Fold:
Amino acid sequence: MPTPPQPPPPPPVLHTLTPNGVSWITLNRPEVLNAITAEQRDHVINLLDEATTTPTTRAVVLTATGKGFCTGADLRGTGTPPQDAADRTAGDISRTLRQGAQRLITAILDCEKPVLAAVNGTAAGLGAHLALACDLVLAAESARFIEIFVRRGLVPDAAGAYLLPRLIGPQRTKELMFFGDALPAAEAERLGLVNRVVPDADLEKTAQSWADRLATSPTRALALTKQLVNASLDTDRAAALAAEAAAQEINMTSADAKEGVAAFVERRGAVFRGR
Structure:
């Protein structure tokens, strides 16, 4: 008897766009706790770029299936630098990081739509930074964050040494990175790494609620606000105030800004359309 055809493997990244403009990006390799391959990474980057350039997309949710959010780069996949020094060319490792993990984190930071992480489980290494680069972070009670690098004899990558000090300060960052201990979701919330911790069963519902609120907000104003806040710790006061004034100038030409002012004058609720 002929062998029956095998069903195609599930896609490593699921993507849906809801009618109100929320782009759901879901890592889908639960069997390896969503360790991310180069293929997945590039797909997520492309989806984030699409969110920026698609006017009808107004918010992004980044989440995963199974018990792991993302346990870092899948070192068994392709795109990792050769481990044998004899096989390496000078610049291989730094080039791989620039074109890989750093490009992924930058895609989140530079996305012009708000990006919400819904952390369903373990977020380790690159996976932790993937969540912490997002604008808002929801975590299930079972989630935990691990700066895993020290356990492997590695230096943190994926912008971790840039992101964490800005979120929790250098001392706390060094504690996490020097020891590599698992940080439970509740402790991550206490430190300020997570906006809110919810029961596991409520994570998707809460993420949907937050994303729906973002999707009905003034999209251009959120994009400009994100840019101002992200740049604020890397600039001086004069530059920050100049950027604020420029953002105000740009935003006041938007239809949503005009709607917001008109709604205030007319004493009614504003209806923002992302324009």
